[in-house]
Design brief:
- This protein folds into two domains: 141 residues, Rossmann fold (3-Layer(aba) Sandwich); 62 residues, no CATH class.
- Helix content is 30%, strand content 29%.
- The chain contains six helices and ten strands, in the order βββαβββαααβαβαββ.
- The strands form two sheets. It has a six-stranded mixed beta sheet, with helices on both faces.
- The longest helix has 16 residues.
- It is globular, with a radius of gyration of 17 Å.
């Protein structure tokens, strides 16, 4: 069995508060893995540690066989939405993604446009991101996470602000990505959309991760 992400004894604290308490868990490649838990349970902190944005005080994290913070600072072929996606409010969705794509220069405008369409937005819309609804911003964030065709996706609350139709669209898109061999870690407040969509489901509670499916 191949694992996309492995955590071993991962602990993280801020001042005196222990946020992650010795997490040991493996996420298999090519599956969708859900993590449920309330705000403050540690989900986002765990994701930031996997991405290399935070360094745990104890433990080790491997992404595709490379140890984060030792072999790599930031895992390659990783797309993410963590907390609120940060976009420039005075630019359109397309203009925002073109600026982000210019950093790595691995995709062209046509691919950006295709990913915007995949999440149900119009790449030719003149609407500025500052005028977007919460659901539209979430869709654009998903497009940004997908646009460079990463092997691993980490999505923190991807259903935030979406109505039932929007959530169903995102579920269908994630299922399609799984069929293409992608590994997806996603967090949500509750089990809605998760039990049918995900191959495994874990609960995060007060910094402790427990598998429930």
């Amino acid at each position: 069995m191949e694992y996309a992400v492995r955590l071993e004894g991962v602990c993280k604290k801020f001042k005196e508060e222990q946020v992650l308490k010795g997490i040991t868990h493996s996420f298999e490649k090519g599956n969708i893995h859900g993590i449920v838990g309330f705000n403050g349970s540690g989900k986002t902190v765990m994701f930031k540690c996997i991405c290399g944005f935070l360094k745990p005080e104890e433990g080790h994290i491997w992404v595709n066989g490379q140890e984060v913070g030792k072999d790599v600072d930031f895992p390659p072929s990783l797309g993410m939405i963590i907390e609120n996606p940060g976009f420039l409010p005075r630019l359109t969705g397309l203009a925002n993604l073109k600026r982000l794509a210019a950093i790595n220069r691995v995709i062209k405008e046509q691919e950006i446009r295709e990913n915007i369409r995949k999440v149900g937005l119009d790449p030719d819309s003149s609407k500025k991101v500052g005028e977007y609804s919460l659901g539209m911003r979430e869709r654009l964030g998903i497009a940004q996470a997908l646009m460079e065709d990463p092997q691993l996706l980490i999505l923190d609350e991807p259903f935030n602000g979406l109505d039932k139709r929007g959530a169903a669209d995102v579920c269908a898109l994630l299922s399609e990505l799984k069929e293409r061999g992608k590994t997806i870690l996603l967090a949500a407040h509750n089990l809605v959309n998760m039990e049918k969509l995900c191959d495994t489901v874990c609960e995060m509670d007060a910094g402790v991760l427990t598998r429930i499916k």
